[in-house]
Structure formats: C-alpha cells, structure tokens
Specification:
Length: about 70
Amino acid sequence: MATQICVHCDFPGDGNCSVCHGRGSIAGNQVPAASVALVESLSCPACGGNGHCQACAGLGEVEVGGEGD
Ligand SMILES: [Zn+2]
Ligand SMILES: [Zn+2]
C-alpha cells in the first residue's frame, strides 16, 4: 500500500478543504449562487465545517491501491 499527495486539497497535500480553504466556513461573497440567500458566514457545505479536505480527510495524502497503472 502506498500513498500519494492528495490533489483535491486547497493546495495539494495541505489537507485543507478547497472550498473554504480549511476555515470550515465560507463568507457570503464566496457562497455559490444557489446559496446566495445565506449571506453570512456559514458552515462549508463541502466539508461540513471541519475544514478538512474530503478526499483525504485532512491528511493531505491518499492511499493508492496499486490498481490501474
Ligand atoms: Zn486532500
Ligand atoms: Zn470546507
């Protein structure tokens, strides 16, 4: 089993949610149009407010099973 840098983080490998940049909340001006009704800071819908990249759970790396290549 090997790991590789998670490219889904805010910055690859930093483990931060790319939507809220690891803050766990997003400001009004960053809310997607569909949620524009919520203008104040609110929990990030991508990470649920914990600020962690959901692809790697905040670890910054993901396991690769050796499939494929
Ligand atoms: Zn990640
Ligand atoms: Zn987030």
